[in-house]
């Protein structure tokens, strides 16, 4: 994350957001990253297997001939783990739902300034991740190679 975040920002591919532990920052004057996420825009080719009804849901009347949809992509989403010794890791106490809440806070600010109505997340087919996104209101869209793509209308 440390190397890629700066590179992606400079190339204007995405913006990286860090959530820091405010208590440690205010009291101990040290930075502890609890979690992170990236946001960018993405144009997605829609598979022929996606139903016409789903396409219309995505873009408020997308015609049957349209092949692409614009999304805000929540890219990297994770809790930070730092090695504090060879055999012990300190883990973030932040919940993934809190990370999604923070990401959507930024997305809603963006929505006030530009036209956007769909959010995309991509993940490997891991039961806990799929469940997290579905519980948060994302719907399965399609598979893209080894990733499942989920969307949420905002």
| Strand order, largest beta sheet | 1-2-3-6-8-7
Give me the number of helical elements: 5
Q: What would you call the shape?
A: elongated
Tell me the helix content: 25-40%
As a whole number of angstroms, the C-alpha radius of gyration is 17 Å
User: β content, as a range?
Assistant: 35-45%
Structural class: alpha+beta
Low-confidence stretches: 85-89
For the termini, the CA-CA separation is 28 Å
Order of helices and strands: HEHEHEEEHEHEE
- Overall mean pLDDT score? 82
Largest sheet: 6 strands, mixed
Topology, number of strands: 8
Task: Explain how this protein is built.
The protein is built from 5 helices and 8 strands; from the N terminus they run αβαβαβββαβαββ. With 154 residues, the protein is α+β, with helices and mostly antiparallel strands. A hairpin with a 2-residue loop joins strand 7 and strand 8 (147-153). The longest helix has 16 residues, at 96-111. The two termini are 28 Å apart.
């Amino acid at each position: 994350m440390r190397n890629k975040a700066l590179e992606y920002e400079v190339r204007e591919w995405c913006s990286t957001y860090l959530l820091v532990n405010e208590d440690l920052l205010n009291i101990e004057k040290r930075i502890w990253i609890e979690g992170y996420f990236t946001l960018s825009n993405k144009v997605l080719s829609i598979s022929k297997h996606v139903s016409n009804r789903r396409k219309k849901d995505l873009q408020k009347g997308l015609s049957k001939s349209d092949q692409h949809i614009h999304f805000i992509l929540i890219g990297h989403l994770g809790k930070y783990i730092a090695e504090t010794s060879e055999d012990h890791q300190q883990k973030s106490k932040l919940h993934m739902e809190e990370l999604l809440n923070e990401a959507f806070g930024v997305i809603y600010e963006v929505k006030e300034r530009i036209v956007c109505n769909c959010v995309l997340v991509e993940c490997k087919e891991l039961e806990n991740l799929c469940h997290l996104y579905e519980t948060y209101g994302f719907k399965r869209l399609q598979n893209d190679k080894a990733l499942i793509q989920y969307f949420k209308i905002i």
